[in-house]
Amino acid sequence: MTQIVSVHSFRGGTGKSNMTANLATTLALQGHRVGVVDTDIQSPGIHIILGLRDEDIDQSLNDFLWGQCTIEQAVYDVTPAAVEQAGGRILLSPSSLNASKIAKILREGYDVGNLNDGFLAFGETLNLDFLLIDTHPGINEETLLSIAISDGLVMLMRPDRQDYLGTAVAVQVAKKLDVPKMLIAVNKVPSFFDFAEVRAKVESNYGVPVGALFPLADEVLNLASQGLLCIDQPQHPISVELRQLAHALISD
């Protein structure tokens, strides 16, 4: 049975898509079949991190939501060589970067129920071990429905006051939706912060375990969304934290 995991943040700019792509790859490097859905339809981009070019996208999640294709027809194999050698697979359903398609979504909307049907069909038809949902930041109908059907939720935040306050709202909502497993990942933690203190503060404030603390790193900036740190630098502290987060999601 597919384990559905939503990756969410209250605000944009947390590095959510980058973390989702690397988490998916980390799971796949362990031999799992992992699906990724980019539901950040208004500002998509995880396909770029996973190496899928715009010109290679024929059908997208947008087309599925408008009933123009099946979810399987909007899925692309983006498995890197290192993952294939490990026996894993990464399958991506991207949202379109086409301006007219984004405008159509904003103007006309879509049946949100189709989105959840697509998640379930994606996992079952393609025999996935994990399906990661890269959500749109904030609290909206799509995100609430995605979280409600998820087996796990990774809430990504930065260690600043705005994120502390906004994440508190998102965590309260998720708790009301009874997500079976919720973890917080703190991203872009400056090196001069006391990491143990950050972990203790977050867990105390929200009553949710911290699955990972990702340091602020120039290496991520240098990749410029064109590579996967967990493959390029497997011993980097961020890669180590990704493996710990993956383990926390897998373990009971």
UniProtKB/TrEMBL annotation:
Keyword Repeat carried by entry: no
Q: Which InterPro entries match?
A: DNA_Partitioning_ATPase, P-loop_NTPase, YlxH/NBP35
Q: Give one Pfam family, short name only.
A: ParA
Listed under GO biological process in this entry are: cell division
> Which keywords annotate this record?
ATP-binding, Cell cycle, Cell division, Nucleotide-binding
Annotated GO molecular function terms are: ATP binding
Keyword Zinc belongs to the record: no
Q: What is this protein called?
A: Probable cell division inhibitor minD
Starting at the broadest rank, the lineage of the source organism is: Bacteria, Bacillati, Cyanobacteriota, Cyanophyceae, Synechococcales
